[in-house]
Amino acid sequence: SSSHAEGAAVAARVERKWAAVAVAIIVLLVAMVVFTGLHWAMMPPSRVETIDPTTLHVSGEFIESNLGSAAETDGSVTVRIVAQQYSFTPQCIVVPANTPITFRVTSADVVHGFLIADTNINSMVEPGYISTFKTSFPESGDHLMPCHEYCGTGHEGMWAHVKVLD
Ligand code: CUA
């Protein structure tokens, strides 16, 4: 009958419409996955290691005697820094020029900012996480290292500096 044929045509149209919607959803999901993957691939590999912020001074990598610059056997230098209201330890970080430098930074209390002037290092340091940044300094000189994340009443006075020696 004609009404049966009409019904089939409507059903086919509805089916095509939903097929198009399903394809659109799949395309959107794939685009989101690709975008997220690219986004993470381009992010510096920071905030992936965890640490107990309440025992930093007592044991482990960030005890006071272990802070500052340390030469590695491969010729690179690792710099360990603790941020806390309202200072960085150490206050003055000395590193050699033209050397691969890895900064490992954590916070003993709240979220702080970590920025080294004239480099692309500009991130946050969160309690409970070790932030890692890799760079090298092509020439000698001083770089300011201010906390740029509001962390309390003493925030404005929270800064250190990086001294690069030839
Ligand atoms: Cu620490 Cu602002």
Throw out a few tags for this protein.
about 170 residues; alpha+beta; Immunoglobulin-like; 6-stranded mixed sheet; 1 helix; elongated; binds dinuclear copper ion
Question: Would you mind describing this structure in some detail?
Answer:
By secondary structure, the protein is of the alpha+beta class. The protein folds into 2 domains: 1-43; 49-165, Immunoglobulin-like, CATH 2.60.40.420. Helix content is 25%, strand content 34%. The chain contains 1 helix and 11 strands; from the N terminus they run H-E-E-E-E-E-E-E-E-E-E-E. The protein has one helix spanning 2-42, and strands spanning 49-50, 68-71, 77-84, 87-89, 92-96, 101-107, 112-115, 122-125, 129-135, 141-146, 159-165. Strands 1, 2, 3, 4, 6 and 9 form a 6-stranded mixed β-sheet that branches. It has a 3-stranded mixed β-sheet with strand order 5-11-10, with no helix packed on it. Strand 7 and strand 8 form a beta hairpin. The longest helix has 41 residues, at 2-42. The relative contact order is 0.15. The model has no long low-confidence stretch (mean pLDDT 91). Bound molecules: dinuclear copper ion (CUA). Dinuclear copper ion is lined by residues 86, 112-113, 147, 149-151, 155, 158.
Layout of strands and helices, then pairs:
Layout: H1 2-42, E1 49-50, E2 68-71, E3 77-84, E4 87-89, E5 92-96, E6 101-107, E7 112-115, E8 122-125, E9 129-135, E10 141-146, E11 159-165
Parallel strand pairs: 3-6, 5-11
Antiparallel strand pairs: 1-9, 2-3, 3-4, 6-9, 7-8, 10-11
The structure holds dinuclear copper ion (CUA).
